[in-house]
Structure formats: structure tokens, C-alpha cells
Amino acid sequence: MWIWRRCVTKYERVSYMKSNSGICQGPIGRRSFLEAGSLALGGLGLGDLLRSRSVAKEAGQVPADTSIILIWLQGGPSHMETYDLKPEAPIDYGGELRPIATAAPGMDVCELLPLHAKVADKFTLIRSISHGYANHAAGAGRFLSGHKPLFLLDPKAQFPCLGPVVAKMLEGRRNPSMPLYVGSAANVYGGGSAALGPAYLPFVVGGDPNAPNFKVNNLSLAPQLKDRLGDRRSLLGALDRLKRDVDQSRVMESMDKYNQQAVNLLTSDRAQKAFDLSQESPKLRDKYGRHKWGQRALLARRLVEAGTSFVTMQMQNPSVPGGIGNWDIHAVNGHLYDDARARLPVFDQAVSALIDDIYQRGLDKKVMVIVSGEFGRTPRINPQKGTRSGIRQPGRDHYPGAMSVLVSGGGMETGQVIGSTTSKGERPKDRKLDPNDLLATVYRFLGIDYRKTVPDRAGRPTPLIPHGEPIRELL
Q1: What is the largest CA-CA distance in the chain?
Q2: Which of the residues 118, 131, 157, 342 could staple to 141 if both were Cys, CB 3.0 to 4.6 A apart?
């Protein structure tokens, strides 16, 4: 079990634009943030959800069949070691790694991302997004909800975040045989559904999709029970053993068609096939990488192709020698460049394969892929003594003043670089953008009016995002 530890510090209570690499152990979760080992029905009131789907369908409110894959790099990746290298900067800023040219003229990426370089004509880099929250929970909440957090260290956002908003706004408007929102964990640290309630949290797929015994438990009823779905009496007997105060003779009769659809969702052949990675060729699975990150990326593609509207796949703990648990690469946590050399090839393979696969399968107009964390890392390297190594080593601290985001698909013009940072990577130099501009772009792509409102903690209407406009270069 995770424990709540050294991130709760004077630094994080007082100064959110500065960092102190000697204290933070990364995003620390509570029990509700642990990765689940099974598919969890993320919510109460599924019957109500299906009912509203029916109403929306009858009203003709069925938008374009578009989907989002969010690859979430929890902990905050370094823009200076991935997508915005500064080889001309002093060594204590630019560091050891060098940029390489890509298939997109004028775009470069880190030398440890050669597969990215080959598919760069299929994605766009945004180098000029920034915000003001330098701890993990507040940074994620700000980035994913568009609102300034009320409680800076709360691991759950106080305003509804991107995935739950999509689940709420698209309910009744998409294919009912697939879950609207799927995640690789119950929540992003610092994210959540806030006042929307647990009905809009994701179906959770935990574990390692690369494991030979990987399966999604509870996706369907047990075979012996599923075979007896037509036998009302047997089903009533099973229900009675779980809840003896139920009137057996009326249970099935009292289930309206919407709750019956909920059962159909859990027994959907479409859903079962979407989660079954064995249906993919070994060659394609090898291309994604036979590791947790690669197979999660492949699973995300299968889900959106089958009709899921929003998928969040967290890429932390790559399960490779030399890598730390997440992207929070302070010097006390690990050696910045040893970590990069262990982590980035795994990341490179998974993300580049996903992008290429989206285009090869003709999904590039239907699916938008976003790769981001909650913030960037300090432009200046901060060497300190490593907790495990016991030696002085390089690292970078939390930094929301500049960050890079990769966006692919979505029917957009790709091969672009949007915005830039100053010569040392300290702040946006031109085309300064806010996370809300990206959120507005995503909502527009999904057919969601980002000017609509959702309830706040007190039940009062609050806008999905208080400001922001779609990024014109991505339209």
C-alpha cells in the first residue's frame, strides 16, 4: 500500500513555482488510487446513464464517432530530455542528451526517441503550454480540469476532470455495448470526477496487459451463470443468495430495459473482444513492445476502435531495470540520464507504435492521441545526493512554467511545432498556451460544447473550463 509521505512539505504548502528536490517522492496515492486488478464498473446509476442514452438517441443528439487516448506520464516528464532540447544552452541547463532530426522538417526530438523521429510527420509538438502549480496533485488537477485547485495537496481534484466530463457529456450519445471511459487506474493522481460523482469514473483495467495470464475480471458473468441468463428461476436463486430480502419472484420483472442493458454491457461480445489482446498478431504486439507500456498502448487502440470514447493509459513504472516508478526524476530519486536511457526506449516504442497504428488503420480522423504529464521539469539541472545511490547525481525538479505536449491524429495537420520556449527552456517565448486551450480543443473534437456547465461542490453550475479557446493550428 502506498503511504502519504514526504511530498507534504513546507515547500509544497508555500511555494508552487519553486521546487526542492530533496523531499518529493513523486505522486503519492491513497487506496482509491491503487491500480485495480480487474475491470470495475465505474459507477452508480448505470441504468440512469443508459436511460439518458436512449433519450439522447431519440432526440438525434448523436455526435461524430470520435475518441481520445490520453497517455498520462504521471510525475511530470522533462521537456528538456524529450521534446524541447536545448543543445546550445549551458551544460547545467541543456544537459547530456542531444536532439535528432525527424521526418517532420524543422522538428527535432531527443536522441533516445528514434522511433518518434520516424513518425514525426504524424504528430504535432506543443512546446509552449504552462500553468502555475508545481506539486503533483494541484498540477494534474489544473491541467485536467482547467480550474485553479482549491486545495493544493488534495489527491482528488475539486473540479471535474477531462475523462469524467467526457463520460458525463457523452452519456447516451455513444455505443452502449462499450464503456464510455476506460482507465488503467481508478483515477489519475490529482484528477477525479468531483461533484459529478463516482458514476463518471472509469472502468478500470489494472495489471500488466503483457502478462501471459492477463485478463479483465468481471467483464462478463461467470460462464455457468451466463448460460442460464434465459432461465429466470436460476438467476433469481443466485440473486437471493446475495440479498435475501429481495422478493425473488419479482427481481427480473422489476428490472427495466435500461438495467437489462447494463447486464448486456457486461456480457457484450464486442467489449470482450476489445479487451482480448490475443486477437492481435504477434508481429504487431512485438511492434508495440512486449512490456506493460506497449501492451497498454495497444489495448487503448483496440478500445477506441471498438467504440470507447475516452481512454487514459498511465505510463509509469515501466518494469525495466534502472527505471524509477514514475517520471518524477529528482536527483534524490534517481540519476536523470541513467533513468532516461532506461525509460525512454520503452516509451519510444510504445508511443510511436500507437501513432503509426492509428494511421495505418485509418483511425487518424476518429482518434486523437495526447501524450502529457502534469508539468515539465526545471530547466536548470539540480544535482543532489541520491537516496539509493548515495552519490551526487543530476536531476530536475517540478516546473509548471514550461512543458511539452504531443498530439496526434484528430484529423489535424501534423508534423508541426506549435510555440517555443526561451533559449534555456524557462518559459514560453511565443504562442503561449494554457492547458485550457488544449481542453477546449479536445472537447470540440469530441462534439462537446466547452461552454456548458457542470455542478461544483456546492451544486452550483460552473463552466467546464473558465477560459480557453481551441488551438487554431490543430483545427
Answers
A1: 78
A2: 157
Strand partners of residue 372 = 72
CATH code for the domain of 375: 3.40.720
What is the domain extent for residue 81?
Answer: 10-228+263-474
In a domain, 254, yes or no: no
Q: Is 223 exposed, middle or buried (0-12, 13-18, 19+ CB in 10 A)?
A: exposed
Which residue, 65, 99, 86, is CA-closest to 310? Answer: 65
pLDDT at 268: 74
Predicted model pTM: 0.83
CB under 8 A, 24+ apart: contacts of 20-24: 20/397, 21/330, 21/331, 21/332, 21/382, 21/384, 21/395, 21/396, 21/397, 22/330, 22/332, 22/384, 23/332, 24/135, 24/136, 24/328, 24/330, 24/333, 24/397, 24/398
Query: Which residue stretches of the chain have pLDDT < 70?
Result: 1-23, 25-64, 217-267, 319-323
> 3-state class of 14 per DSSP?
helix
Does 257 fall in a domain?
no
| 144-172 exposure pattern, b = at least 16 Cβ within 10 A, e = fewer | bbbbebeebbebbbbbbbbbbbbbbbbbb
CA angle 307, 311, 313 (to 5 degrees): 145
Q: Which three cell numbers stand for residue 424?
A: 534555456
Q: Is 200 in contact with 164 (CB distance < 8 Å)?
A: yes
Establish if 249 belongs to a structural domain: no
Closest CA to 84 of 107, 50, 114: 107
For residues 323 and 341, give the distance between their C-alpha atoms in angstroms, rounded to a whole number. Answer: 9
Q: Which residue has the cell 505510463?
A: 315
Rounded distance between C-alpha atoms, residue 116 and residue 347, angstroms: 10
Q: In this structure, are residues 185 and 35 in contact, taking their beta carbons and an 8 Å threshold?
A: yes
DSSP string, 141-191: HHHHHSS--SSTT-SS-SS--HHHHHHHHTTTSS-TTS-SEEESSS--TT-
Beta strands 99-101; 108-110: pairing state: antiparallel
4: in domain: no
pLDDT, tens digit, 9 for 90 and up, residues 52-100: 445 544 444 444 689 999 999 999 999 999 999 999 999 999 999 999 9
